[in-house]
Amino acid sequence: MTELPSCPSCTSAFTYQDGALLVCPECGHEWSLDNPPTPDEQAQTIHKDAVGNVLEDGDTVTVVKDLKVKGASSALKAGTKVRNIRLVDEDHNIDCKIDGFGPMKLKSEFVKKAQG
After folding, report:
1. Residues 66 and 100 in one domain
2. Cα separation of 90 and 23, whole Å?
3. Could you tell me if residue 54 is inside a domain?
4. Residue 49 lies in a domain
5. Same domain, yes or no, for 66 and 106?
6. Strands (E), the chain
7. Most C-beta atoms within 10 A of its C-beta, which of 10, 11, 77, 85?
């Protein structure tokens, strides 16, 4: 039996082959055995907002719809501005601090990059 390489995204050793692709069951990353991504390609994840604008660390965004917040008595209202975001490679890909709510993780599909 051939030893499969570790996942280039999360370094998990539990990869498996699915046809021509290798798959990581821990993070869901898929790649080709013939053409593995370089570390530079892995680091270049592009995050886009609800309308397709590219987001960067430190941007200011606006929430586009009311969002229920676990453990909070009220929802996060559409139009709420969030300043100085930090992008991460997770399911909720924005780490931020919102006045009145505290530290929070948001999905980029529920925000729009603020003008200026």
Report:
1. yes
2. 17
3. no
4. no
5. yes
6. 16-18, 21-23, 30-32, 61-63, 81-82, 86-87, 94-98, 102-106, 111-113
7. 85
Length of the chain: 116
CB 49, CB 42: distance < 8 Å = no
Assess if residue 81 is contained within a domain. Answer: yes
Output b/e per residue, 64-98; b: 16+ Cβ within 10 A. Answer: beebeeeeeeeebeeebebeebebeeeeebbebeb
CB 69 within 8 A of CB 76: yes
Which amino acid belongs to residue 46? I
Residue numbers of the domain that contains 17: 1-41
The rounded distance, in Å, linking the Cα atoms of 54 and 41 is 17
Cβ(87)–Cβ(56) below 8 Å: yes
CATH number assigned to the domain comprising residue 107: 2.30.30.40
What is residue 48's three-state secondary structure?
A: strand
* pLDDT digits 0-9 by tens, 43-83: 567 888 999 899 999 999 999 999 998 888 889 999 999 99
